[in-house]
Write a structure and sequence with these properties.
Layout lengths: L4 E10 L9 E9 L3 E5 L6 H8 L7 E6 L2 E2 L5 H6 L1 E5 L10 H5 L1 H5 L4 H14 L4 H4 L9 H12 L6 E5 L7 H18 L2 E6 L2 H7 L2 E6 L3 E6 L1 H6 L4 H7 L3 H5 L15 E3 L4 H11 L3 E5 L5 E6 H7 L9 E2 L10 H10 L5 E4 L5 E5 L1 H25 L1
Parallel strand pairs: 3-8, 3-9, 6-7, 7-8, 11-12
Antiparallel strand pairs: 1-2, 1-4, 4-5, 9-10, 12-13, 13-14, 15-16
Helix pairs in contact: 5-7, 13-14
Bound molecules: adenosine-5'-triphosphate (ATP).
Length: about 400
């Protein structure tokens, strides 16, 4: 692992009183600093228990937990929890306290002065997209589910902890608000660089939110621990494969960019040229579709051999079908696929910032990129095995 471990779980065990099997069995896990690690796995596999062991909401039955290299297994749990932000699905705001008081919970415990607390509350409300003048004096019952969840995040950030634990934080929210909160949170994390452990049972949320993902099986055993791209390119066994479900290869296209492709030379001509010249070019290159460019070199239409043949000796203005949206370097191959399946030509054009034609992406490009990602991931695991 490149990033330094902020949190290290060392053979951590949790056995609830009265239960025969442990909820967490000898879990050893490094949680890298400044990243989002997602714990994902089927219901009841022990995700929440693992999360709650980290801030000692639950006492471990065995093993050690290290924060910044320091063993906190026996530290004062209250003190520990002030260092660690905690967000849960049901938010858990105090109903009789205003939003401002809820956010100020930890700063108050830490006896910050009033001015500092007020400034911090307003700053945090702003940060999570709730204008302070409208929200600070409201009560939790006066908020929508999505707003309450934002307040939950603001409260967890209260005393600026460097670690956040998030237990299905966006689980109970409608899909559109959920996606918005996920995106906002990812943007926030780009500035905050907190160490975050994020629990979900939804693999798509894990893929979206995680810098790394730990896929857990029963008793919190780690079935695969890696970046989302590598897990999608190379699920290590049937359990992981089944858990990811259909379409893992296509989901993996989200992690590949157009800039990584070598664009092939593709026949393209300005529309002021004759259709006969276009047809000649296609036949010479052995291609089916010509990219017709406007006077500025921007792709405007696809023209097939048949369409060019029908146009005869005239120029190519109006010949062919609209090219639709274009790709740029920063687009993902998932976006490329989306455009390709909509395109009459089954391929899509790439343009530069000025909109000028650079080349095309077709299924061959995607196929090659996927196969490269898969073989790199396979090689990575073979090396790991060889060094074990
Ligand atoms: N307080 C408790 N007492 C006894 N057993 C518990 C307790 N809390 C959880 N368990 C058991 O421990 C196991 C792991 O539960 P946990 O809530 O950690 O799973 P989870 O992966 O977070 O599940 P979910 O996705 O359904 O929330 C389960 O078998 C559960 O029944």
């Amino acid at each position: 692992m490149n990033a330094q471990a902020k949190i290290h779980l060392d053979r951590v065990v949790k056995k609830y009183p009265g239960s025969k099997v442990p909820a967490v069995e000898e879990l050893t896990l490094d949680i890298p600093e400044g990243e989002i690690l997602v714990l994902v796995g089927p219901s009841g596999c022990g995700k929440s228990t693992t999360l709650r062991l980290i801030n000692r909401m639950i006492e471990p039955s065995g093993g050690r937990i290290l924060l910044d290299g320091e063993d906190v297994t026996k530290a004062n749990p209250d003190k520990l929890r002030r260092r660690i932000g905690y967000v849960i699905q049901q938010v858990g705001l105090f109903p009789h306290h205003t939003i401002a008081d809820n956010i100020a919970t930890i700063p108050k415990m830490l006896k910050w002065d009033k001015k500092r607390i007020t400034e911090r509350v307003d700053y945090l409300l702003d940060t999570v997209g709730l204008p302070p003048e409208q929200y600070r004096d409201r009560y939790p019952r006066e908020l929508s589910g999505g707003q309450a969840q934002r307040v939950g995040v603001a409260r967890a950030l209260g005393a600026d902890p460097d670690i956040m634990l998030m237990d299905e934080p966006f689980g109970a929210i409608d899909p559109i608000t959920r996606e918005r909160l996920q995106n906002e949170f990812l943007r926030l994390q780009e500035e905050m660089h907190k160490t975050i452990v994020f629990v979900t049972h939804d693999i798509d949320e894990a893929i979206k939110m995680g810098d790394r993902i730990a896929i857990l099986g029963e008793r919190s055993t780690i079935r695969q621990y890696d970046t989302p791209e590598r897990i999608l390119a190379y699920p290590v066994d049937d359990f992981v494969n089944d858990f990811i479900g259909n379409g893992s290869t296509i989901k993996g296209l989200n992690f590949l960019q157009v800039s990584s492709l070598r664009l092939s030379d593709y026949p393209a001509l300005r529309e002021s040229e004759s259709a006969a010249a276009g047809l000649n070019l296609l036949q010479e290159k052995g291609r089916d579709w010509l990219v017709v460019l406007d006077g500025e070199g921007r792709p405007v239409r696809w023209a097939s051999q048949e369409q060019l043949g029908q146009a005869g000796t005239g120029d190519m203005r109006g010949v062919g079908v609209e090219v639709g949206d274009h790709l740029k370097d920063e687009n993902t191959l998932f976006e490329a696929l989306e455009l390709m399946v909509q395109s009459a030509a089954g391929r899509t054009c790439v343009v530069d910032d000025a909109g000028q034609f650079q080349g095309i992406v077709d299924m061959g490009h995607l196929n090659k990129a996927i196969r490269t990602a898969q073989s790199e991931a396979r090689r990575h695991y073979e090396e790991l095995e060889a060094n074990a």
